């Protein structure tokens, strides 16, 4: 039987009551026979709001504001992050599988600027998920598109192993 590793990251808006409820759910899976171990870690970050206007029925574009890019660059250069793994999280993917832009359909306006700032700031990876196709694009920075983990027959996730301030391993896992 597989043993799963769960990283619990309490933070802003995730108070003790939310973590307690989370652990009750995790415990339920344990009673059903799922083997797991947990580890708790602190995480700091800057949110990049990429959600743009919705144009129904098929176009949902995102954008990155210049002020967000400046804040991201400053955060990535913060002295207390030196030597730590830096991961940027956005909703809209800055590119498609193979590195192609997805503008104007579902893409991210300002994607090249986001990739440049993340690279200049020493980000190890950009995690995203708007595009419904799971993929990894080598960087720097590494772009990991988690996609929909609920697509029938393609359920799964990516497992990142971070050691000594770097992404040591990235593996796609099936559910």
Write the layout of secondary structure elements.
Layout: E1 3-8, H1 16-31, E2 35-40, E3 51-55, E4 59-63, H2 66-76, E5 87-89, E6 108-109, H3 111-120, E7 125-128, E8 135-137, E9 142-145, E10 156-163, E11 166-174
Parallel strand pairs: 1-2, 4-6, 5-7, 7-9
Antiparallel strand pairs: 3-4, 8-9, 10-11
Helix pairs in contact: 2-3
Please give the number of β-strands. Answer: 11
Which topology of the largest domain does CATH recognise? Transcription Regulator spoIIAA
Order of helices and strands: EHEEEHEEHEEEEE
Structurally, the number of domains stands at 2
Under CATH at level 1, the class of the largest domain stands as: Alpha Beta
Major β-sheet strand ordering: 5-7-9-8
**Count of helical regions:** 3
Radius of gyration (CA) equals 17 Å
What shape does the CA trace take? globular
Distance between the termini: 13 Å
Low-confidence stretches: none
* CATH architectural grouping of the largest domain: 2-Layer Sandwich
For CATH, the homologous superfamily of the largest domain is named as GpdQ, beta-strand dimerisation domain
What is the SS-derived class? Answer: alpha/beta
The helix fraction, in percent, is 10-25%
Describe the structure.
The chain has 175 residues and is of the alpha/beta class. The protein is 21% helix and 31% strand. Helix 2 packs parallel to helix 3. The longest helix has 16 residues, at 16-31. The two termini are 13 Å apart.
List keywords for this structure.
175 residues; Transcription Regulator spoIIAA; 2 domains; three-stranded mixed β-sheet; globular
């Amino acid at each position: 039987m597989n043993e799963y590793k769960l990283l619990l990251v309490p933070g802003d808006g995730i108070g003790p009551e939310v973590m307690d409820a989370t652990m009750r759910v995790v415990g339920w899976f344990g009673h059903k026979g799922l083997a797991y171990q947990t580890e708790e870690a602190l995480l700091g970050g800057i949110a990049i709001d990429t959600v743009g206007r919705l144009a129904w029925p098929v176009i949902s574009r995102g954008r990155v504001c210049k002020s967000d890019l400046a804040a991201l660059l400053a955060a990535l250069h913060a002295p207390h992050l030196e030597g730590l793994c830096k991961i940027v999280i956005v909703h809209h993917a800055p590119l498609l599988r193979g590195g192609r832009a997805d503008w104007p359909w579902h893409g991210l306006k300002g994607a090249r600027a986001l990739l440049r700032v993340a690279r200049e700031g020493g980000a190890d990876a950009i995690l995203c998920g708007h595009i419904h196709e799971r993929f990894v694009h080598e960087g720097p920075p590494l772009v990991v598109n988690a996609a929909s983990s609920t697509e029938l027959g393609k359920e799964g996730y990516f497992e990142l192993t971070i050691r000594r301030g770097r992404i040591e391993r990235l593996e796609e896992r099936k559910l």
